[in-house]
Amino acid sequence: MAHSTSLTALSHPDYHNDSNRWQEYRLTYEGGEDFMRKYLLRPADETEAENRERKLNTPIPAVAADAIDDVRRSISQRLTDVTRTGGSPYYQAAVAGEGSGIDREGSSMNTFIAQPVLTDLLVMGRVGIYVDNIAPGGPTLADGAAKPYAYAYRVEDIINWTTMRPEEEGTFSMILLRDHEITFNHAFGINFPSKSRERFRLIQIGPNGFVRYRFFKSNTGMLEPIHTEVTSSQLRLDDEGWINTRLREIPFIMPALNGSMLKNVASYQRMLMNVSSNEAMFAININSPMLTIMKDARADGAAWKKPPGGEAEPGGQRGRNNSVQQGIRSGWVRGRFYGLGEDRPGWISAPVESLKASSEYQKVKADEIRSLVNVAVQNQTGTRTESRETRELSAQGLESGLQFIASKLQHVEQQVAKFVAMYEGNPKEVAKVVYPRRYNLKSDSERIKDANDLTDVTDKLPGQAVKKESAKQVISTLFTGRVPSATMTKMIEEIDKHAYINSFDNVMLLRENALISDDLAAASQDLPKSEVKQGKKDRAEQIKITMEAQTSPGEESSDSPDRPAARGAKELDPNKKSGSDERAEDVKKRGAQKAKKVDE
């Protein structure tokens, strides 16, 4: 074909602009040895052996991946609350993961969205989803004998595209994609997968308004058409080599964000790996302190020997084999003689201050990586010393960013549902997909702290109506995104049914001061009434046993012993502090006895 059909000439401008950093983003997220081989720096004076040792002992940081996964988890954990109503029985079974699932690999829609789609969307900033109904290795599109399914395209494999309406997502008029086919070797009556090869797929809306496509191979960067056999009654091969379908819209979705979440993070992770590599080598080396022995170089005439190509130097020759420079091997079980009157040999250990500083520096940079990922989600983020108002605004911005990302995923699902209906011949029977509206990135400890703060406020609020609403806020803070919406609804209903809402500590305090009954105290803790009567009997038996144990031998037990609270029966004592009063008196008495002995 003509030179103008080279793959480079056919690439989209955005492909050229963004592809320079795609490998960096993907390696930053995936880590591993590929990341180390690409970005671990080698000091100029480091030997091959030292470099191999460095690589073996270099830790590969995964801070960026962890930060991205936090964002992914905050969205994917809400996928259980996505509602998908309508559509065909096949669609409902596929999105539930039944049979071969939505991707012919047994995945549910939640799994498919959370793994290839959302992950690549965050890491690379864009991802493609193709809805097909024949395996990628064979003829594709609109074969009525097969069931629709979806698979994802990495951004590196979306070579070019044009849209029919630029102001809308989707509505493509042309797409050039790269497929990765598995080739097989046939032996012993079995097809053995042998290698992968590239194949390019050009899809467009033809002159008649229907979708058509062709396959190409690439040799030395030039696209050459591949002859395709058409075996489906739903497909037709025209004279130009195009395979024509009955679809009127290209079944491809390409959600995009405003760049990768790792755009400002990748350089931080490269730096962290190199700093931690130096730190690891330093830590290994300082575990072997160096032995030093004072020696007078003039004793063996070294001070008067000329170094190669130079004059004699005061203090001794600086050559590699000079006795001043030459080290003496030492070990844990070896000793050494030293002469009478000579200075004792000593050990020199490397200072650890630089190691501590390096560790602190890495912690700071790791925190910055997480903050930068959050910045990529929201418009701005604050520091740990910011005011409460600023933190609240920051959290709102972060939640808005997560909602925006989730809206992209909702659009993907809605388009998949539409294309499935088109394949099935029922374009008007499209399932409706609705995503949750609330998302957050708070850790478990942050959730618990916020819930405790709300609980403290709830205890101080008067009136049951306001206490119930505050209790609902506590439930929402702790469990939103962590439990299914049906469970959340059940918990809210339980709060509404309660006649009395209060914390356990408050209830016990009110009960001790006879401000509420046992029945109301039990009801506030959702305990059955039958347990109140039995609990009183059990407590009375416990008091009886306690009083008997507190009675001295030969002394008759009494239902009203002296200071019963001090004996474990505070219910019988009007002075609830008699136990502490008795302990104070005992301390005072022992002090007086000790003072008396000192005087005597």
What does this structure look like?
- The chain is α+β, with helices and mostly antiparallel strands and 600 residues long.
- Among the domains are: 290-348, no CATH class; 444-527, no CATH class; 537-551 and 559-599, no CATH class.
- The protein is built from 16 helices and 14 strands.
- It has helices at 13-30, 32-39, 48-57, 63-76, 89-95, 109-124, 266-285, 353-377, 388-423, 444-460, 464-479, 485-497, 504-512, 518-524, 529-550, 578-599, and strands spanning 83-85, 128-132, 149-153, 158-163, 172-187, 190-205, 211-219, 222-225, 236-237, 243-244, 252-253, 290-292, 346-348, 432-434.
- The strands form four sheets. Strands 4, 5, 6, 7, 8, 9 and 10 form a seven-stranded antiparallel beta sheet that branches.
- Helix 4 (63-76) runs parallel beside helix 8 (353-377) and helix 11 (464-479) packs antiparallel against helix 12.
- The radius of gyration is 38 Å and the shape is flat.
Task: Give short descriptive properties of this protein.
three-stranded antiparallel beta sheet, flat, alpha+beta, single chain, 43% helix, 16 helices, 14 strands
Give a short overview.
Helix content is 43%, strand content 13%. It has 600 residues and is an alpha+beta fold.
Largest sheet features: 7 strands, antiparallel
Q: What is the H/E string?
A: HHHHEHHEEEEEEEEEEHEEHHEHHHHHHH
Measured as a percent range, the helix fraction is 40-55%
What shape does the CA trace take?
A: flat
Termini distance? Answer: 118 Å
Summed over residues and divided by their number, the pLDDT gives a mean of 76
**Strand percentage:** 5-15%
Integer-rounded radius of gyration: 38 Å
Number of helices: 16
- Find the structural class using helix and strand composition: alpha+beta
Number of strands: 14
